[in-house]
Amino acid sequence: MRLDQHIASSSELSRKDARRVVISGRVSVNGTRCKSASTHVTEHDQIMLDDRFLTLPGALYLMMNKPAGVISATRDSNQPTALDLLPADMARHVHIAGRLDKDTTGLLLLTSDGKWSHQVTSPRRDCAKTYQILLAESLSEDARLSLEQGVLLNGEDKPTQPARVVVRAPTTIELTIREGRYHQVKRMLAAVGNHVAALHRLSIGSIVLDDALAPGQHRTLTAAEIAAITEPD
Q1: Confidence of residue 226 (pLDDT cuts 50, 70, 90)
Q2: Structurally, how many domains does the chain consist of?
Q3: Domain that holds residue 46
Q4: pLDDT, tens digit, for every residue of 51-108?
Q5: Is residue 22 part of a domain?
Q6: Is residue 224, in this structure, part of any structural domain at all?
Q7: What percent of the chain has pLDDT over 70?
Q8: Residue 233 located in a structural domain
Q9: Which of 48, 136, 205, 226 is the most exposed place for a label (fewest CB within 10 A)?
Q10: Cα 139 from Cα 130, distance rounded (Å)
């Protein structure tokens, strides 16, 4: 990674302030003063700011119960983001693995491990995601069968992969998909003549949203939950 990124990740400094301390000559790499913020460094290099060694924190893996009205973004000057719900010293190290729409609630995964988050979001991974959906109308049997066979979304020429549908009540279903097309769940229900009134993500792979988490709360993933993402479903 770049030297300024390393400093920002291992200190209280922002990326902008990290560049400033490098340019001012306060940083050394392996005992040699370095004034180029773009210098490539690794976790094995010894980075010092003034007389303090800087070490990268361990990887972070979190789940959050995302509330409605919060966007899945690193930062936004006009709207609250999921990262705003985390302690500042934690938020600056993580990114979101698998976003949710502003009005969608439920399981959100956040991590500092780019390779792990790629396993969550990569189309090749086919990581299953299950949603609880409140519908505007009861789901007909024909509509359920269509969803399970794959439907053609408006503006596309390739149908969705077969989904799994569990009917919990006349207007409440659980839908499991293995793709991540734009607004896919809402568009799938529109394709069968229905409308999503509320959408809540229950699980990603075998990671299930913790019932003990109130909206806006988070917790660290267990070792088993972290490992599950890299294993076949």
Answers
A1: very high
A2: 3
A3: 3-54
A4: 888 877 778 899 999 999 999 987 766 889 999 999 987 888 888 998 999 999 999 9
A5: yes
A6: yes
A7: 97
A8: no
A9: 136
A10: 17
In whole angstroms, give the CA distance from residue 205 to residue 188.
20
The one-letter amino acid code at 151 reads V
Per-residue tokens: 126? 């086919």
pLDDT digits (tens, 9 = 90+) for 153-178: 999 999 999 999 999 999 999 999 99
Residues catalogued as catalytic: 101
Do 138 and 200 share a structural domain? yes
Same domain, 135 and 197: yes
Same domain, 106 and 144: no
Token pair for 123: 């189309």
Tell me the two tokens of residue 95.
């990114």
Helix axes 15-23, 3-10, angle to 10 degrees: 120
Reading the block at residue 92, the tokens are 């600056």
50 & 65 share domain? no
Say if 32 falls within a structural domain.
yes
Alpha carbon distance 198, 102 (integer Å): 11
Query: Does the pLDDT of residue 232 top 70, yes or no?
Result: no
Domain with residue 187: its CATH number is 3.30.70.1560
100 secondary structure, DSSP code: -
Cα 196 from Cα 216, distance rounded (Å): 22
Residue that is written with structure tokens 């009005």 in the block: 103
pLDDT, residue 67, reads 97
Whose CA is closest to 111, among 4, 218, 232?
218
